[in-house]
Design goal:
single chain; about 90 residues; mainly alpha; elongated
């Protein structure tokens, strides 16, 4: 395994751990409850075609938000390493 592959694996593990910690918070629990309520409203008031379209849109929005968070997290790690190097903490 190359240094880059090891770094990528390390970074991915940090991200996974951060997500797991977040999913144990009251904020995440609240968001999940809100999501369930929205799904109940959608199922009770939309036709099957409308429901499928809305679910597809919500999935796409959720995937985009997850990707944005992942990109920001990874950039934060890169920025942190860059800053530590500039400060002389890392070689």
């Amino acid at each position: 395994m190359t240094n880059q592959e090891e770094w990528n694996e390390f970074r991915d593990n940090l991200l996974i751990n951060a997500i797991e910690r977040y999913r144990k918070t009251p904020e995440y629990e609240y968001i999940q409850k809100q999501r369930e309520e929205i799904e109940l409203m959608l199922h009770s008031s939309l036709t099957t075609d409308q429901e499928e379209l809305v679910e597809e849109c919500l999935f796409d929005i959720s995937a985009m938000a997850e990707r944005e968070s992942e990109v920001a997290y990874r950039q934060g790690l890169k920025d942190g390493v860059w800053l530590l190097k500039k400060l002389g903490v890392l070689a």
